[in-house]
Protein: Aldehyde dehydrogenase
Amino acid sequence: MSYLPQLQKIQQFFDSGATRSYEFRMQQLQRFKDALYKYEQDIYNALYVDLKKNKEECWVTEIGFIVSEINYALGNLKRWMKPQKTGTNLLNFPSKSFVINEPLGVVLVIGPWNYPLQLVLTPLIGVIAAGNCAVVKPSEFAPAAAAIIKKILQDAFPSDFVSVIEGEGHLVVPGLMNNFRFGHVFYTGNTKVGKMIYQMAAQQLVPVTLELGGKSPCIIEPDANIDMAARRIAVPKFSNAGQMCVAPDYVLVHESIKEEFIVKLKNAIDAFYNADNVREYNYGKIINKKQFNRLLTYLVEGTVIYGGSYNEASLYLQPTLLTNVSVESKVMQEEIFGPVLPILTWSNDEDVYRIIERNNDPLALYIFTSSDAKADKWMKTISFGGGCINNASWQLTNYHLPFGGRGNSGIGAYHGKYSFETFSHKKAIMKTPTWFDPALKYPPFKGKLNWFKKIIR
Structure:
């Protein structure tokens, strides 16, 4: 199938300049927000079908998350669009300098299946706010969510402004990227596919944002508030059945508090996800049998001290804790992306560094300690995308912070103003008056060296 006629139509709309005005962008963002409310119940239904998410979780991690980002953009877009004044060096006196944020063109947004609305529609906010057009490719592995995304975007926007293209990613994405030069490509997903997208983009020198994953460690110091740490780790690790890129992937707990921490963590999981009166409503399912079977292979790579039960028919995998896990095992070499949590111990800092260095540049790092000095040390000596002190995963929800990885966990960042900047080109402008035009800057230059040394230093 050729996507070129459709893509050319979108490019023509962008080239017309229709997307560049403040009024147009504000109108589209408002239409976007209205459509989310209009299809709120349909979103709940779709996410229940794909991932068994309850309404409250849908609101916090999907609909409400997107709405809050739109509201932030609506309240700040005028300021973001203003030219940014900068200084001017002595050499160019009395010129004035400033930076203009210019839209990049037609942006391709490729989404994953784990948060199928949020991780497609949040970057789209930045695409629209920055004055671009968009092609959206939702994940085929969350088909109900993909269908409602298409319905929302077709209702909110004309197809030559925002277009949704469905299908199998390994067929659709090359068909798009190899036949059309996008202004930017934004991909959220696994590292293997991210590398392929990066290679395709490089052929046409297209800039990319790659939101990947990795093994995000959680370090627990002896002086941590253990009860609080257990609660704050249990929530994101087993929310969405653990299918979250910024969930703690493994715990590094100091050996002196291991047993106490495990007791507290079991209690938290029981209360939040595993008790009879909460399990059916609060706990999700694995997305498909492929992922389910992959996760089962991890259960034999350590000692199961909690959980381990599963039901293939319903794609249910109980929150599971593993100990006696080798750092050579597959569960410690691959991103888990599910409700399995290895618990390792350490006695000195070198143990922690040695384990983390096996999977460099994690997307996130979480530290639990009552010592500012210890927290500062870990944050400054380990490379990672972003993180929390005495919390886990919630940095993702703060639109004042950039969200993104580094190295193996990704390229670039977004959220809030950072989304606007990601999808804008910073055009540098210098305006020079005509009333001052010293002969010093013109040839012949012989004899002017001392003047140049005074001016340029």
Notes: Residues 4-212+407-429 form a domain with the Aldehyde Dehydrogenase; Chain A, domain 1 fold (CATH 3.40.605.10). The CA atoms of residues 39 and 151 lie 9 Å apart. The first strand starts at residue 84 and ends at 86. The first helix runs from residue 4 to 15.
